[in-house]
Write a structure and sequence with these properties.
alpha/beta; Glutamine Phosphoribosylpyrophosphate, subunit 1, domain 1; Rossmann fold; 3 domains; eight-stranded antiparallel sheet; seven-stranded antiparallel sheet; about 25% strand; binds fructose -6-phosphate
Length: about 650
């Protein structure tokens, strides 16, 4: 095996000099930090608890106590365990972290904060891509490492820089930053300067929440809403200096862009949170957040429609003041998204091309960002993201922005972001914004965010059709009337839960499941399979039903349930013959139909009627519901960690 492995991508080289080193890639982690007149330990832990939904495999807290000593506690269990371990630890300055690792062992030594010299403590979200060479440099300078993480390299480097020239923490961080390649959000404290915290953002979100006699940092301001509703978002390459009575933010050139004691002159504005915090910590009588969120869909859909419709006509301005003009000019739509959000984009392609004839390309952001797509002149880029922070999608938009600038306005490109988070990175990149009103989604598996994205995309299709005069008033009116009925229809689909629970008992005993759909039901089948594998850990694959005979038919046997989505539409006849293909090979079919599909029930064809007379737009929304319920109940029967499934996290903020 070669000793050196060279990985190349567009912008950088990563040299792994020693394959025995465990490369620890940390992302989606949570950061909380506080500096205050009062004891901050309980605040840090309450903040971490609110970040638990993001998923993590270890957690830790470091506090500078009254004697100016650093005290650090870590756990491989839940934050609750940390709560028990911190008894007696008090201080006015501290940082805390939940870590989620994709590579490397989740052992205590790799958990954050990382401490050097009993003096510096650092928490970090992101990846230091050149960590191998930096680590070697630190070792050559005499550093002794106690973890396998890239994060420890940062704090070791800061320490070496401080010691060498007797620098302050601020100066040492400033001198260290240019040496780091990669993406990070981090916070660092120094026991010899117990009044100050330094925080830096590059590629991984960080916000500063403001208080009286206290200030806080977090990777998601939601974590601190219980203590402060006012916050400032750090921009890329910003460095913040937090003290109990001041917050100063500098840009990469050292220019002050925010000063909490001089907000009038500050470039950055303070955001007052509009998010409803009430439901975040409460499961509202449900056993899991995911179950609660599935049942919140009628309300979430109704709220997303609110304000967009007047007198059965769509208000195109709900996409922004410029929307009608921009929409009238574009010739093509390019959707960029990941995971579940990508599936909603796939549904949009069927709608948009079929109903208004505007071509749509849909691509996962992680592919889009690493190829050189040939894109035409008049394109609307649509980023879809629940969190608004997904790193792949953000990077893809950055590329679009760069190319747009290079073309000096000649390519007529515009960006629309559809997101559930008003103050997010993807929203800031956009020319136009549509906010879904799903409310806070805690369960890692996305449910109400998906159906509200579908609502947003159906409105987008109508808005494009209107702006380009490709949709008559009558059709617009009919569609809007149809959309208005969706919350009720979704509720009746939810009411089928008992039948789905029965089916779940069968699926829970399977090793593997196949999902089939045609047309818009193909992305819904993909979404159903993703949900099932995410939370029940059952292997699941989705196929366009017409593809069966081109390979997947080989997987059909008596043990593998075939889950079919069969609305009564133009493709039903075709789908019925696909079902024959499955039955004749001994496959067991579990079909969701609408009452008019009239599928023949046999020993091997089990059918659940979900709805009646569903329209083209409401169909994908309605048939999503039984699949969400199915995956939820299968996972519940299997006893998996439904809200925080293994290896997954809510907001994928680094590649
Ligand atoms: C699946 C799921 C993920 C996300 C994906 C994109 O249930 O939640 O596949 O959809 O990570 O996240 P957002 O939409 O936040 O960009």
């Amino acid at each position: 095996m070669p000793k050196e492995l060279l990985l190349k991508n567009k912008s950088f080289y990563v040299i792994l000099t020693n394959l025995t080193v465990i490369l620890t890639v940390i992302f989606m982690c949570g950061i909380v930090g506080a500096v205050s007149e009062r004891n901050i330990t309980p605040i840090l832990l309450a903040g971490l608890t609110r970040l638990e939904y993001r998923g993590y495999d270890s957690a830790g807290v470091a506090v500078i106590n009254k004697e100016q000593n650093l005290e650090c506690v870590k756990t491989l269990n839940k934050v609750k365990d940390l709560n028990e371990k911190v008894t007696g630890i008090e201080g006015n300055l501290g940082i805390a972290h939940t870590r989620w690792a994709t590579h490397g062992l989740p052992v205590e030594s790799n958990a954050h904060p990382h401490i050097v010299n009993n003096r510096l403590a650092l928490v970090h979200n992101g990846i230091v891509e050149n960590y191998s060479e930096l680590k070697q440099f630190c070792i050559n300078q005499g550093a002794i490492f106690s973890s396998d993480t890239d994060t420890e390299v940062i704090v070791q480097l800061i320490n070496i820089t401080m010691q060498k020239d007797n620098l302050t923490l601020y100066d040492a961080v400033r001198q260290t930053l240019p040496k780091l390649k990669g993406a990070y959000g981090m916070a660092v404290i120094d026991a010899e300067n117990p009044d100050e915290m330094i925080a830096v953002r590059q590629g991984s979100p960080l916000t500063i929440s403001l208080g009286f006699g206290e200030n806080f940092i977090s990777s998601d301001p939601m974590a601190l809403l219980f203590i402060s509703q006012q916050y400032v978002v750090l921009e890329e390459n910003d460095l913040a200096i937090l003290r109990k009575d001041s917050v100063v933010i500098e840009n990469s050139k050292g220019k002050v862009v925010f000063d909490s004691n001089d907000t009038q002159k500050s470039k950055y504005k303070i955001i007052t949170s509009t998010q409803d915090d009430a439901g975040v910590t409460s499961k509202g009588g449900y056993r899991h957040f995911m179950h609660k969120e599935i049942h919140e869909q009628p309300k979430a859909i109704a709220e997303t429609l609110e304000g967009c419709i007047s007198d059965n006509r769509l208000l195109v301005e709900c996409f922004g003041q410029e929307a009608a003009f921009i929409f009238s000019k574009i010739k093509r739509v390019q959707i960029i998204a990941c995971g579940t959000s990508y599936h909603s984009g796939m549904v949009f392609r069927y709608w948009c091309e079929d109903i208004i004839g505007i071509p749509v390309d849909v691509e996962v952001a992680s592919e889009f960002r690493y190829r050189n797509p040939a894109i035409e002149k008049d394109v609307l880029f649509v980023a879809i993201s629940q969190s608004g922070e997904t790193a792949d999608t953000a990077e893809a938009l950055k590329i679009v922005e760069k190319l747009k600038k290079q073309a000096e306005g000649k390519n007529h490109w515009s960006i629309l972001t559809i997101s559930n988070k008003a103050e997010s990175t993807l929203v800031r990149y956009a020319d136009l914004v549509f906010l879904t009103r799903a409310g806070f989604e805690v369960g890692v598996a996305s449910t109400k965010a998906f159906t509200t994205q579908l609502v947003a995309l159906s409105l987008l299709m109508i808005a494009l059709g209107k702006s380009q005069k490709r949709l008559s008033e009558t059709v617009e009116k009919r569609m809007i009337q149809g959309l208005r009925k969706v919350p009720k229809l979704v509720q009746s689909a939810l009411d089928q839960e008992e039948q789905i629970i029965e089916l779940s008992n069968i699926i829970a005993n399977s090793q593997s499941a196949l999902f089939l759909g045609r047309g818009t039901m193909y992305p819904i089948a993909l979404e159903g399979a993703l949900k099932l594998k995410e939370i029940s850990y059952i292997h699941a694959e989705a196929f366009p039903a017409g593809e069966l005979k081109h390979g997947p038919l080989a997987l059909v046997d008596e043990e593998t349930p075939v889950i079919v989505i069969a609305p009564n539409n133009d493709l039903l006849i075709k789908l019925k013959s696909n079902l024959e293909e499955v039955s004749s090979r001994g496959g067991k079919i579990y079909a969701f139909e609408d009452k008019n599909s009239k599928l023949t029930r046999t020993k091997s064809v089990n059918v659940i009627s979900v709805a009646e007379n569903v329209g083209r737009i409401s169909c994908p929304l309605l048939f999503t519901i039984p699949l969400q319920l199915l995956s939820y109940h299968v996972a519940r029967i299997k006893g998996t960690d439904i809200d925080q499934p293994r290896n997954l996290a809510k907001s994928v903020t680094v590649e």
